[in-house]
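Inverse folding, one chain.
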């Protein structure tokens, strides 16, 4: 499914009256092809009317408005999107962490918000299981749900590569599937971004059953990821300029709250 963005004032700006000057003069010959998610609440998801919405979606619309570029939102599974970006069949992905493996085929923008990954459990189990490391997961005999190809930090990456993961990790296809398996008791915890998982639970009407465990696997900035095959230095520089403009506004701070950059350095481009 694709969604074409036109050069109109993005909702993020029109609702607030915040319109910054263009970050750079840029001639975008073709729409930027951007992978989005249909179930990554509250960052990128489908509304009841079939429109893609969310905090990161509106931020991206504002970025493209800022640099006067058209864009195309493409809804494809996360695992497939990595291969598509590496091959140059899509140009950009939001909410991405920088890893050595990804740097071989991708480049990254400046950070635009923070993301935390950890465990979401059935509320009754949060106090029942004291967890300060993944060794405790093994000790308690827990089974963790994890979406394939999602990055949840180096510690969890190493755990996935170990023989222990065969007994203690179950691969799920999406956040929604993971939530349903957790509610059904087929897994003990979901390795996810808690804000996203609990937003999904609210949508399913089960928010009072699940809770975030205090144990964290990851807390770091996220970036836009670009295909090395299709995205130019000029475009990345322009997007970084737009990030700098937008993350300096009160609107940004109000919308992203604790996820907002505390000390933004958007001029630092990650190659």
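Residues assigned per position:
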């Amino acid at each position: 499914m694709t969604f074409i963005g036109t050069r109109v004032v993005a909702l993020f700006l029109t609702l607030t009256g915040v319109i910054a000057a263009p970050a750079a003069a840029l001639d975008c010959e073709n729409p930027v092809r951007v992978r989005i998610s249909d179930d990554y609440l509250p960052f990128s998801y489908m509304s009841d009317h079939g429109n893609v919405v969310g905090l990161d979606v509106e931020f991206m619309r504002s970025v493209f408005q800022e640099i006067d570029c058209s864009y195309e939102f493409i809804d494809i599974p996360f695992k497939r999107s990595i291969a598509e970006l590496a091959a140059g069949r899509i140009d950009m992905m939001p909410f991405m962490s920088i890893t050595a493996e990804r740097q071989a085929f991708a480049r990254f923008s400046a950070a635009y918000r923070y993301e935390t990954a950890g465990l979401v459990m059935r509320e009754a189990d949060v106090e029942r299981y004291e967890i300060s490391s993944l060794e405790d997961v093994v000790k308690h005999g827990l089974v963790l749900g994890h979406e394939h190809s999602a990055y949840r930090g180096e510690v969890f990456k190493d755990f996935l590569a170990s023989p222990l993961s065969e007994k203690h990790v179950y691969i799920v296809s999406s956040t929604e599937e993971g939530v349903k398996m957790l509610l059904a008791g087929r897994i003990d915890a979901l390795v996810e971004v808690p804000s996203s998982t609990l937003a999904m639970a609210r949508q399913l009407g089960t928010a009072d059953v699940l809770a975030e465990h205090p144990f964290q696997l990851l807390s770091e900035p996220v970036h836009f990821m670009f295909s090395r095959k299709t995205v130019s230095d000029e475009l990345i520089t322009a997007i970084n300029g737009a990030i700098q403009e937008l993350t300096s506004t009160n609107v940004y701070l109000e919308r992203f709250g604790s996820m907002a950059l505390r000390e933004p350095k958007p001029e630092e481009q990650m190659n």
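The domain at 2-114+222-259 is CATH 3.40.190.10 (D-Maltodextrin-Binding Protein; domain 2). Residues 233-246 form the longest helix (14 residues).
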